[in-house]
Amino acid sequence: MLVLLIDDNRKVRQEIRDYLSSQSHQVVEADNGLSGLSKLKQHKFDMVISDHIMPIMDGIKFCENALQKHLVSAKQLLVLSTKIEPFLEKKLSKLNVSLLSKPVRKELLQDKIDLLDSSLKSDSVA
């Protein structure tokens, strides 16, 4: 699976990248939503994992732009946040985008990946 990982914190990106790589996924990184949007226009990713709070363009704006421009489907997006607040949950729910809290528990991340993987496989069969 080709994954776009967007987070302004290099340490967080490295930790998630190392886990994804250990599971045989290819990872492309960006340090803010605007940079992530640029990379999303250049490549077709299977999954996009984005931090919520970032400079230049936050995770919500990134998701809104990516969906509006039809660069990715909502089921391919996953937003990470240290602050899970009702506003964030409501906004992402309206966009139909998944949310995980930080620090990321690998088993929960793997559950999201497995769910997406099975959904992508069923889409390609249909």
**Which spans of ≥5 residues are poorly predicted at pLDDT below 50?**
none
Major beta sheet, specifics? 5 strands, parallel
CATH fold descriptor: Rossmann fold
Task: Note the beta-strand portion.
Answer: 15-25%
Structural domain tally: 1
* Element pattern in H and E: EHEHEHEHEH
CATH superfamily: Response regulator
Q: If you compute it from the alpha carbons, what radius of gyration comes out, rounded to the nearest whole angstrom?
A: 13 Å
CATH C-level: Alpha Beta
- Terminal Cα span: 19 Å
Identify the quaternary structure here: single chain
Give the helix tally.
5
Strand order in the largest sheet: 2-1-3-4-5
Counting helices, strands and paired strands, the structural category is alpha/beta
In total, the number of strands is 5
GO biological process, one term: phosphorelay signal transduction system
Protein name: Response regulatory domain-containing protein
InterPro entries: Bact_response_regulator, CheY-like_superfamily, Sig_transdc_resp-reg_receiver
Keywords: Phosphoprotein, Two-component regulatory system
